[in-house]
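User: Some background: our group keeps a shared notebook of sequences we're curious about, and every so often someone picks one and asks for a predicted structure to add to the entry. Today it's my turn. The entry only has the sequence so far, pasted here. Could you supply the structure so I can complete it?
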Amino acid sequence: MSELVRIATTGSVDDGKSTLIGRLLYDSKQIFQDQLEAVEAASTKRGTDYVDLALLTDGLRAEREQGITIDVAYRYFSTPKRRFILADTPGHIQYTRNMVTGSSTANVALILVDARHGVLEQTRRHSFLTSLLGVPHLVLCVNKMDLVDWSEDRYEEIVDDFRSFAARLDIHDLRFVPISALQGDNVVEPSQNMPWYRGRPVLELLEDLHVGSDENLIDVRFPVQYVIRPHRNEYQDYRAFAGSVAGGVMKVGDEVMVLPSGFTTTIAGIDTYDGPVDEAFPPMSVSLRLGDDIDVSRGDMICRPHNQPTYSQDVDAMVSWMSETSELRSGAKYAIKHTTRTARAMIRDLQYRLDINTLSRDESAGSLALNEIGRVRLRTTSPIFFDEYRRNRQTGSFIVIDEATSATVGAGMITGEAA
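Assistant: Of course. Here's the predicted structure to add to the notebook entry:
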């Protein structure tokens, strides 16, 4: 099966994110005739003299009426080389939580810039959030080059501006492409209007990006989700532990440790839906059979004896607040869901609120409101097994739950063990 790559598109309002996705789908022959006819009809109704491919992703009525993206829209397509999941995330500041949701699992972020306006405040905000969320690859698409006469000087000016800003961020792989999403230049096919650009179009970049090392293949992490004990007689001796591999490579015969008990054993077998395999790695969903009959429950963590996650009740984390009806304050109590483990938690301290426009810290802040991000210290009622988010996005993240309503009110990225 071909490799799966998750993509998030973001950028300022009206920079052309939805149009780029529509052009990718259209030029790579990934939309059906009836979909195209519906978009053509909607374009005519809106009074445009061209087929507005942005309507392929702007599915909500409010989005179509306002010409903006509100919710995260997902689209699936494939090429002979790869399979893709595209997340079209909103550009408005009031939908920051939606952008965080859409980018949290992405391998690559496509950040769009309007060539006429250059790098804006919202561009910087989304680039910082992309960095904070640990997205490994970032492609800056300088869009609407047709409206600046395909100017190489303008493109280079924007590239230099963004590079100077990106130097302050934790970005490992940064690429630049000049495009016209509306006309299709450098999206799927190379542009004839910009012969000075000698790089590859967007789709070729996405097909060839090296994403194999994006997952942590060093630290073995296997949060147990379910204990399998069949009741039919012919399988009564079968006992396995199901879950998704969150890190490292596990092989049959490897010595492993189960936390929190600390018992060690070996991997006797690795089963998948398609049958037994010799090894498992992220993000495979597997069932592990162990060599010894030891007590293992949901929420336990299987790892290497000499490479264990941090085990603590006190956690430092960056939290993106998502609640419209409540604010995060020191002393507040919530439930958190971390890997397969749930615990109650109290906010010990709000250390600062981050201004994602200037990257400055407001240490006098007393709360986090909707779409705000800050650093907190929290204490859980029972220890959790975690790594820093920058090392492992699966074991380094959690969601915050309001116990009264069971609503998800925040998303956290662990920065370390709290003092």
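Suggested note for the entry: The CA atoms of residues 63 and 69 lie 5 Å apart. DSSP finds seven helices and 25 strands in the chain.
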